[in-house]
Every structure is written in C-alpha cells, then in structure tokens.
Amino acid sequence: MAKRVGMWALSLTLLLCFYALGKLSAAVFEPSVLPLTALDRAVPFLPWTVWLYGTITWVSLFAWLTIPTRADGARLMTSILIASATCALVFVVFPTSFPRELYPLTQLDSASQRELARLRAADSPSNCLPSLHVALAWGIALTWASALKHRRVAWLAAIAWAVTISVTTLTTKQHFFVDVPSGMIVGVFAWWAAAKLFPGSTSTPAWVRSEGLTLTWDTHKKAAAKLRLAAQGYQWSLDEVDWPTGPLPPLDPLLVRLISELIYIEEIAGMNFAILAKASTSDDLRALYGYFADEERRHANGLRRVLALHGASVRPPGLGNSLVLDEFDALDHESDADVLLIATANPVFETMLDAGTVPFLRTHPALRSPWFDDFVKRITRDESAHLAVNWMVVREAGQRYRGLAGLSLLLNPSIYRGMVAVPFMSLDVYSLAHAMGYRFETLMPAFGKLWRLHKRYAELRGFPLWSVFRVFTAAGAIATIVSARLARAGLIFVRFWTAVTSVTDLFARLVFGRRLLSKRGLE
C-alpha cells in the first residue's frame, strides 16, 4: 500500500514538473487565443461539473491502489509521463489561452463557483491545446482498463470516467472543443506507447530484455568450465567444521547486531546468485551460480550457528538490508539492466566484505578460535571463486555496453533505490564494528583496488554502470578517510552513531515488519 501511494505521489510530482515547463513557456511567449467555434458556444457553462473535473487526482490514486501487477504499474507510470511530456512539448512550441472572461463567476456564494474560482486562481488559462486533463484521463483509463480487462464493469467504468472528464473540460470552460480530441489522441498514444515499452507480465522495458546471461570469450568459457569442476569438488557442509559443543559465553549485543546484519548480507548475495543462475543460458555459468547461491546460504546458516552457540538469536535486519531485501520484488532475471546490476554489485560488496568485516570478526576476542578460523577460511575460499566469475561477466558486459549503448542500463530504477539503501547498509555494519574497535583504515586498500580496476580490465573504462560504482567507491573512500581522522581526533561519537542505527532499525521494523522476512523465506 505504501509503495503504491508513493508511486502515485511520484507520478503527480513528475506531472507537475512537466506542467510547470509548459506554464513557463506561456509566461515567456504570448499565448495564442483561439477563436470560439459554434461547438464551443453550444456547450453550456456548468460550474457544478468542477467536482467531476477534479476527480482525476483521486481516480489516479485509486488506479494505483488497484492495478494488479508491477508491469501494470510500469505501464501506468509510463502513460502518465508520456502524456505529460507530449503535452508539455506542444505547450512550449504553441502556447494557447482560453478567454475565461467570457464566462465570469458571478455567484461566489455557491460552493461550486467558489471551487471553480479556486481552480482558476491555481491554474492559469494558458496551455489549452491539447488538454492535459483529457490526455491524462484517457491514458490512465485505458491503462487501468487494460489491467482489469477481465472485469467488465471496471473496464466500462474506467472508459465512462474518461468520457466524463473530457466533457467537464468543456462545461467548466477550461478548454476549447478542439483541445478534447487532441488530448484524447495524446492519451491513447501514451497508453499504446506504454504497452509497447512494457509488454507482457514483467516491469522490464522492452529495450533491456535479456536474451540470457552467457560468456562469449573463449578464455572465459574455458575458465568457467574449470571453475565449475573445482567448485563441484570443494563443496562442503557446515558439519565439516569442528563446532564446539557450547553453550559459549554471551556475546556483546553490538556484536550480535553486527553478525545479524552480515547474515542478511550473505542471504542477499545468495538471492542475487539465484537470479543470475536463472538468467544464465550457459550450463557452466548456471551451475556455478547455483553453487554460489548455495554457498552464500551456507555462510549465513553458519553465522546463525555461531549466534546460537552463544545463546543469541538473529535480530531483524536494519534499514539498509531491509531496503535491499524489499527490492527483490522489482528485480527481473529477464532484464539485462537488473542482471548486470546484480553481477556488478556482487563483486564490489564481496570485496568490501572480505576486506573489512570478515577479517574483523576473525580476530575478535569473543570469536577467535580454531573452529571459527576454519569457518572463515571456507568462506574466503568460496568468495574468491565468486569474484572470478563475476568479473568475467562484468568485463564482457563492459565490452558489450560501451558508451551510449550502456546508458540504457542507467535508466534502471533499482540503481537509484540502491543508492538510498547502501549508505544505511554501511552505517548498520561499520558503525557497529567501529564501536567494537574496528579501524576504518583497513578498508582503504579495497577502495583503491576497486577504483583502479579499470586499469587491469580495460573493458570497464567505457562501461557506464561501472562508472556509477566508481563514484560510490570514491564516496566510500572519502567517508572512510574523514571517519578515520575524526576517530583519531576523538570527534566521532560512537554512541551517537550506534544510537542512530537503533532508530533506523526501529523504522525498518515499523515499515517492513516480519512480513518482509517471511516473504523472502528468512524467518
């Protein structure tokens, strides 16, 4: 529900941006006043119809709340944007104005006339052709009706509402008659274009539909075949680790929170690999990603066993991990944009995990032991194979999506939602680790390695998606340097930042609750 309301609010915000663009043009250039036709004069002035005219805001909200699938949501958002952008373009090129003074409001003691007066005060008479109101009504109605095509009553109601909106633009004297059919044409075009851009049952745009993830370089094919045999040979089980009998002494609550966050990071990596396995058309790649998904789940279950030995249970995820877990609803294995985002993100986060938190846990006094050292060595060995395969995939993607061709991948909304989640993930992990003695400087070699990776792999230089991760790497390095210096100066207030994570944890529980873990099978 909250997501749908958020998408409705976003669609209104973008609509207002296009609307403002059109109004700006009318303010700069003198709008044309079209002549009233016999049809314009024949339509009566009915101020009470302003109440019907104003339903577009709330009907659009109802449409967002009732569309069945994410694909329908993508089509609805796209139809709104196309209708708004098309009308704004015409407004810029050919601004027009309606002579409202011919239809004065003389009875302001009437609620309907007062409402229409408020509308006129907020909405200047410029930019009539085509009617944005009509374009939006038909775009929304047709998209909504298409989503509910098996419900005849709902379908008829949607079309009847669009017709009603079209009529009220005339009876409120907001538009000329010619504005209505032109607006309807724009709305129908917006609906048609949205259906073409998002065909089928997924929210993946047609231009980034994947033909399957595979390796095409001979060197990579041979390497993947060898890695598959190696991975098959060194699969292991948690029972091979010489776990102590327990119970062991209780852990610091901060350490419990940190290990819990790492468990979710491992689970997220496993779900990422499961998507990559599903996307793979190469037998070797599919098998490798299947092994990797199992390994990440094994790492998570091993960390759960560590907590259990110390009498602790896994805490709910913090805000960063919750946002990422929630994002899996939007990820599509048939989308090149999603698949390559995952393939690029995984090695970056595994590099940081190997460089930072895993070595820190290995040396922590409460965990330092031969059995835990053995467990961490197994994790590290697994991760090295993960990195090797992912860099092969990313290098080939960099060659295939160089320059302008790769810009389409940056239209993926998951990138920008990830930009919101990653800082919270970092806060959840590193503020807790620092409170227990972690030194930020240990991350710098990993940041340097990632920043310079394009020198080792030339294919990454022109890969726009990798450029996004380089920006994050630079931001992370700067934040690390600043944090390290503040820590040395005694100016980084550990209690404050751990308290912040407690607040964001509470926010995550209130917003997502246990249902998110249940949805992902992590309870």
Automatic annotation (TrEMBL):
Keywords: Membrane, Transmembrane, Transmembrane helix. Coiled coil: none annotated. Pfam families: PAP2_3. It comes from the Bacteria. InterPro entries: Aur1/Ipt1 (IPR026841), Ferritin-like_SF (IPR009078), PAP2/HPO_sf (IPR036938). The chain crosses the membrane at residues 50-67, 79-98, 129-146, 153-170, 176-194, 463-486, 492-512. One of its GO terms (cellular component) is membrane. CDD domains: Ferritin_like. Residues 48-192 form the Inositolphosphotransferase Aur1/Ipt1 domain. This is Ser/Thr and Tyr protein phosphatase (Dual specificity). It comes from Enhygromyxa salina.
